[in-house]
Specification:
Blueprint: H1 3-7, H2 22-52, H3 69-91, H4 95-114, H5 120-165
Length: about 180
């Protein structure tokens, strides 16, 4: 690659290097997808465990989000199944998977925050995994946005270079040439 091509052309400013390499994008996508899949598995296990315990919560547990274990079981089971579907989308590189992954991971964090008094250690572990998923997907989206911005800047420079290359010529006899 010549110096001129790397600099963006003879008159253009230097082209910005891509903020994210392809290998980093793949790694972040894999991290987000795999951890989201692990979170989904944990949520499904939480749901099955809560559904299997048919006894109500003990009366000494007093908190704002008091639901019986059956309700918590269904909440975690639904969030877990959704997270598994979205994790497959993230791992396959589907665009919808990134944004939906953020929504599902955020929902999982909220559900586990409300579940803290019931199973504190389990909920904290799942919240930690959800934070890792949100970080990986946000990094991936931020870098993808930077790449799109760089591509748009390159296109703008190319259009500006093309516009300067064309000399305006009079189109009718009413316009006179510069004297």
């Amino acid at each position: 690659m010549s110096d001129r091509a790397a600099s963006g052309g003879p008159s253009g400013p230097p082209r910005r290097e891509s903020r994210m390499t392809t290998s980093r994008a793949r790694a972040l996508s894999r991290v987000g997808g795999v951890v989201l899949l692990v979170t989904a598995l944990l949520a499904v296990l939480q749901g099955i465990t809560a559904l299997g315990q048919d006894e109500p919560l003990s009366d000494d547990v007093d908190y704002s989000y008091a639901l019986d274990l059956t309700a918590w079981g269904w909440i975690h089971l639904v969030v877990g199944v959704l997270a598994a579907v979205v994790a497959v989308g993230v791992l396959t590189g589907a665009t919808w998977g990134l944004v939906t992954g953020l929504i599902v991971a955020g929902s999982s964090m909220l559900a586990n925050f409300a579940f803290l008094p019931v199973y504190p250690l389990w909920a904290i572990v799942v919240i930690g995994f959800d934070v890792l998923v949100v970080w990986a997907l946000c990094e991936l989206l931020r870098d993808a946005e930077g790449e799109l911005s760089s591509v748009a800047d390159d296109a703008d420079r190319a259009r500006a270079g093309d516009a300067g290359a064309h000399v305006r010529r009079p189109s009718s006899s009413h316009e006179s040439a510069p004297r």
